[in-house]
Amino acid sequence: MTYNDGLDQYRLTPKELYAEFEAKGADVVFAFQTRNPTHAGHAFLMNTGRERLMARGYKNPVCVGGGGEMHIRMHLNMVYVQPRTNP
What we know:
Layout: H1 14-23, E1 28-34, H2 40-55, E2 61-67, H3 74-85
């Protein structure tokens, strides 16, 4: 399904998600979602989640999700994040 809202490239099917996780070498995937923009407290929770999974024996936990979509338009987040994550 496409919405032609500039975000279609970020919408993945389950099969595409599995391929992304496999490409990242994930042995477990965990999610974090908040209505608010991500801040240091959220980063702490995401890092702690990863550390706890690693303490349980997982080698490469991958976090998906984030925040701000409810209060800040997602495409503005993507415009902000994309240049920093895709040099």
